[in-house]
User: Which sequence fits this backbone?
């Protein structure tokens, strides 16, 4: 894959289409219902309550693919992995690895800037119980295909097996040559392709970070390896 010469324009177009999307009735109903009944901590805030687009550097050589926006995170703030504890973990690690200008991500206007990195998700709407369906994943997949084509990243960090599956499907749709049989997902696993190298990480969800299944040292190792593979100096 080689970068789209009009990557910035393509990404802006994808963003516009994502934000306007109402293709999945279950997700539309859920994201809007959550916004209508905010948590007490966010009382009085106006929720984004729309699909959440990708975010970052249009010249990125690293792409990070998560699961979906959190109901009171991205669905509230309008920026992926922003305003929740999963995002706290992710952006701290990216900052330590030199892929972000600051370690915090609390609001869409907080000054966060990604450096040679793009963060996106397999599904763009907050799903009930954080569990999008395979059909919802596949409905969203063309957006991921177009982001991949525009960016042509050297490395993709997938957060969790759901993100791995979505990324695999998007690369296949983009005509990238993939190994067969498909390697199993596992934290730290690396999958070379004819395009980007896939690096697998446990998701930064609280069920992993609170239990110690994923530690900050483990996440740092993932992004240090991503930097090595992307050949971007710090």
Assistant:
């Amino acid at each position: 894959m080689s970068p789209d010469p009009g990557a910035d324009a393509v990404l802006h177009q994808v963003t516009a289409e994502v934000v306007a999307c109402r293709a999945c009735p279950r997700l539309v109903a859920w994201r809007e219902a959550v916004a209508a009944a905010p948590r007490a901590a966010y009382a009085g805030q106006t929720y984004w309550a729309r699909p959440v687009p990708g975010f970052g550097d249009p010249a990125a050589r690293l792409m990070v693919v998560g699961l979906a926006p959190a109901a009171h995170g991205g669905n509230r703030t309008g920026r992926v992995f922003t305003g929740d504890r999963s995002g706290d973990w992710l952006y701290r690690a990216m900052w330590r690895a030199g892929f972000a200008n600051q370690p915090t991500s609390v609001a869409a206007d907080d000054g966060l800037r990604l450096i040679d990195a793009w963060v996106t998700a397999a599904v763009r709407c907050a799903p009930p119980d954080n569990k999008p369906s395979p059909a919802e994943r596949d409905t969203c997949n063309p957006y991921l295909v177009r982001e991949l084509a525009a960016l042509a990243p050297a490395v993709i960090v997938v957060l969790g097996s759901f993100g791995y599956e979505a990324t695999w499907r998007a690369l296949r749709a983009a005509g990238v040559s993939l190994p067969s049989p498909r390697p199993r997902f596992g934290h730290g696993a690396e999958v070379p392709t004819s395009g980007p190298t896939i690096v697998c990480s446990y998701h930064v969800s609280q069920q992993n970070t609170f239990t110690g299944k994923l530690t900050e040292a483990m996440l740092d190792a993932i992004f240090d390896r991503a930097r090595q593979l992307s050949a971007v100096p710090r």
